[in-house]
Write a sequence for this structure.
């Protein structure tokens, strides 16, 4: 039999076994592994009917163009809702057709606010404070947050008046957190008026940014320490705050670090987002508290890309990838320089920059480490247990909580899955902070580290979603099942936004006092006479009187009356 005949038999067998797949984009690793499993590829076509060209033979085997983006934009992730980006298993296994909840920073910002409804956890313990500048209530909350600058260092060089104002503002904030202001009049003035806050911020900028020389009182030091202890007990993000009050301004629907800016002046942030009314109207701008005390490696900032796989949304089933990689910035860390080259570790930004000549020589030239290299570095720092006891458990918990709060807003489809990429930054105490979650994370082998890891995560993804369907005990590679929710029946309407509809109850009209005998009742009802029957035992009879309104119309009420044989007898 010729090659054509063998190919026909192979295709017919694949169709019978439902092993047909389609790929959009360059994924030679996926294509190769599926073919080894006996799958047959169906060519992807445009809506016009033209067939997309297959990758070159050299690309297909090399694995060097394994990305859902162009070679020039190899770092993440569609900015708007996109059709499934990886491969379509002809209704057998498909990517979830998500609504962009995780890809959009706005969705993550909103969903995590509902975490207390899903788990006994506080989103502030792993997700930096985040606000939507397009929503008026969020905007006001951000302005209050920005104005409420907590004194996190002993104010030994600050004037007494300035320190007193800051401490009073912190005490007022503690009162709000403890809900002791629940009975406070809403019209009652705050400690600082808007004009007072404006003056306070001006003085703050002079102290922090301009180095103004100020004085202090020794009696204020102990008060500051007491306030700090109270704040640390109720504010999980206190230890990652600094004294410059820096925030990250992000377009909510973009990726690869585009449009992101680090800013420390409230007026500049509001001016930036207000200059585009259309963007503000759509609520696409978000601000997120910058981690001013990050864990550094040789004086340089880094973040970590962590993959996880969702194979079902009901029950929610989450797989966590054992291997990850960290990305360095090209410049030494400094809070006085807010340039993106210092603070944004996205490879799409850093790859266009030259490494600083002031960097530590042990930093990698390609600005990437594997997680194994990172663990070795932690061991040299004298923290060998930080990875297994703080970092990994913290990342797993953050991923699970983020998915729990987003579960109701994702359209669930059986036999589908999605691979995500979460970005984390670590505090000086190794606490992981979730920065964002990206749908369709890049698989581009931009460095030697990603060339190995991206190929591995694709191969292990197929082990979980294909091989495990036939053999529940098969090897799942570096994927670990970290969460499987008990199956629950989906109600007719699913969502966390509830709507109550009703009508005002009208006050009933006054009933006439005229009493009539209800015609449907017996003529007489036996009852005790309060006077005669008490002593003599004589039963007297009187008609049952009802209000006029109760026997009019077809719906007049009819009371239940016991039969005479069951009436109580007098024992006198």
């Amino acid at each position: 039999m010729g090659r054509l005949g063998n190919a026909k038999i192979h295709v017919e067998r694949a169709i019978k076994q439902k092993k047909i797949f389609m790929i959009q984009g360059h994924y030679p690793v996926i294509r190769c592994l599926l073919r080894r499993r006996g799958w047959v590829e169906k060519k992807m076509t445009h809506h016009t009917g033209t067939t997309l060209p297959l990758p070159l033979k050299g690309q297909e085997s090399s694995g060097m163009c394994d990305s859902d983006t162009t070679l020039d934009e190899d770092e993440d992730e569609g900015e708007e809702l996109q059709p499934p980006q990886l491969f379509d298993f002809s209704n057998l296994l498909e990517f979830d057709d998500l609504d962009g909840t995780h890809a959009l920073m706005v969705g993550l910002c909103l969903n995590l606010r509902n975490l207390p409804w899903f788990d006994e956890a506080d989103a502030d313990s792993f997700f930096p404070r985040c606000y939507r500048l397009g929503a008026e209530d969020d905007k006001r909350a951000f302005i209050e947050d920005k104005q409420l600058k907590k004194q996190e260092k002993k104010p030994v060089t600050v004037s007494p008046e300035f320190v007193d104002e800051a401490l009073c503002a912190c005490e007022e904030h503690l009162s709000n957190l403890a809900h002791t202001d629940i009975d406070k009049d809403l019209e009652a003035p705050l400690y600082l008026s808007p004009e007072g806050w404006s003056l306070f911020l001006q003085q703050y900028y002079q102290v922090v940014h301009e180095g103004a020389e100020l004085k202090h009182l020794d009696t204020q030091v102990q008060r500051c320490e007491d306030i700090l202890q109270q704040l640390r007990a109720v504010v999980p993000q206190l230890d990652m705050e600094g004294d410059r009050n820096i925030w990250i301004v992000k377009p909510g629907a973009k990726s690869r670090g585009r449009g992101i800016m680090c800013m420390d002046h409230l007026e500049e942030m509001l001016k930036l987002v207000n200059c585009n009314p259309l963007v503000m109207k759509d609520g696409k701008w978000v601000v997120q508290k910058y981690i001013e005390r990050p864990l550094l490696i040789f004086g340089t900032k880094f973040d970590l890309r962590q993959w996880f796989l969702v194979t079902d949304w009901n029950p929610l089933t989450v797989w966590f990838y054992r291997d990850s990689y960290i990305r360095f910035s090209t410049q030494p860390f400094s809070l006085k320089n807010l340039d993106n080259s210092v603070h944004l570790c996205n490879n799409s930004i850093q790859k266009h920059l030259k490494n600083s000549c002031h960097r530590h020589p042990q930093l990698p030239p390609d600005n990437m480490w594997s997680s194994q290299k990172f663990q070795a570095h932690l061991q040299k720092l004298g923290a060998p247990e930080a990875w297994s006891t703080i970092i990994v458990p913290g990342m797993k918990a953050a991923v699970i909580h983020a998915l729990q709060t987003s579960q109701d807003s994702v359209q669930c489809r059986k036999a589908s899955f999605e691979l995500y990429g979460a970005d984390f930054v670590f505090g000086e105490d190794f606490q992981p902070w979730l920065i964002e979650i990206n749908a369709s994370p890049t698989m581009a082998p931009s460095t030697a580290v990603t060339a190995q890891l991206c190929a591995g995560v694709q191969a292990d993804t197929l082990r979980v979603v294909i091989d495990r369907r036939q053999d529940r005990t098969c090897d799942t590679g570096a994927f670990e099942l970290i969460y499987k929710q008990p199956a629950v029946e989906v109600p007719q309407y699913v969502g966390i936004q509830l709507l109550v509809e009703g009508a005002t109850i009208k006050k009933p009209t006054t009933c006439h006092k005229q009493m009539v005998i209800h015609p449907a009742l017996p003529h007489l009802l036996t009852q005790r006479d309060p006077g005669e029957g008490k002593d003599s035992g004589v039963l007297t009879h009187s008609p049952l009187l009802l209000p006029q309104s109760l026997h009019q119309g077809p719906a007049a009420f009819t009371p239940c009356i016991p039969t005479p044989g069951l009436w109580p007898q007098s024992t006198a």
User: Anything to note?
Assistant: The longest strand covers residues 302-313. Confidence is low (pLDDT under 50) at residues 52-103, 149-156, 521-563. The two ends are 113 Å apart (CA to CA).
